[in-house]
Description:
single chain, elongated, 3 helices, 6% helix, seven-stranded antiparallel beta sheet
Amino acid sequence: MLCSILLVFCACSGGSDSGGSTPDPTPEEIKFNVTQEQINAPHNGGTFGKITVSTTGSSLTVKSDNSDWITVSFTNQSVRVGELTVTVAPNTGEARQGSISIISGSASTKIMVIQEAAPAEETDPEEMTAQSSYVPEGYSLVWNDEFNVSDIPTAGWWYEEGRGSNGWGNNEEQYYVKPRSGSTVGFCKNGYMNIVARKNGTRIESIRMNTNDGWLYGYFEARLKLPKGKGTWPAFWMMPKNFTSWPADGEIDIMEEVGCDANYVLSTIHCTKYNNGGTSIESGKKYVATAESDFHIYACEWTADYLRFFVDGETILTYYNDGSGKNAWPFNAPFYVKLNLAWGGNWGGYKGTDESALPATYKIDYVRVYQKK
């Protein structure tokens, strides 16, 4: 009888809920929260940090599913919460996709890692950078940049940074940065300057570069290959060195194009009398079927009497000095050269934008300035 009583007591004690632990949730019950579910890495790799993960399960671990090119550093903040940093190695081949596993018990979720392909090696043949046949007679080279350096451009440029006022006056979406060593946004390679609109976290970064020097009159020429994609807005243009107000001080747009109207290139002037009027007096347009796939030469000849704009030597606009004064002709003071790639805005985004086009690259072979002796 005593043995029976002890057995009953032990059975009742062992089955009591009051002293037992809560069982782990099943895999179907475990939930995860990840602050970044996908990493888009450039071809030269990079480090992506401060990604927070958490789980409703009783444990949390993280591992790379592609340890040969994805490395993960994980710090537990508690048994259910942690922060990870992902390092993606440079890619020398085709675009690739990998993942990072986040594990809690027998349940798991993934962070996808997508890395773009290594760019094709595009060299700058010497014969393509000889003086073009379009330079007018009587002009001599006074300034140029051939971008025949590696990494960042020479010291002949200064850079605008940030969002500007009201998206640089046009509700543009990009954030301009200054090129730095190892940059994937603005860099020289194989004889070309590459201005790349690229998404970095939540913002799209690009470059807006300006010559330190300015010139009064001359022939201004650049060999360019334009980017592809709805939202892109590349430009080769000029602004006055002693700027006080716009459009009164003038603006010279040698080449502009928006990706939503691919291959239609425009040359335009801005002044008080003519400013975004859309007339043939102030703006010219040409369809260049391969503007986004091949290099073309864009130029402007600026004299005291006229501004004449060219694509591959063909005139698309001539704007004359009518002698009426500054309202129509503020173009009698030194101007400097500008190159930039905008994203979106009043014109670049007037048909919307498509971020799947990013990164988008604007290639500049050279910029040359000629003047008469």
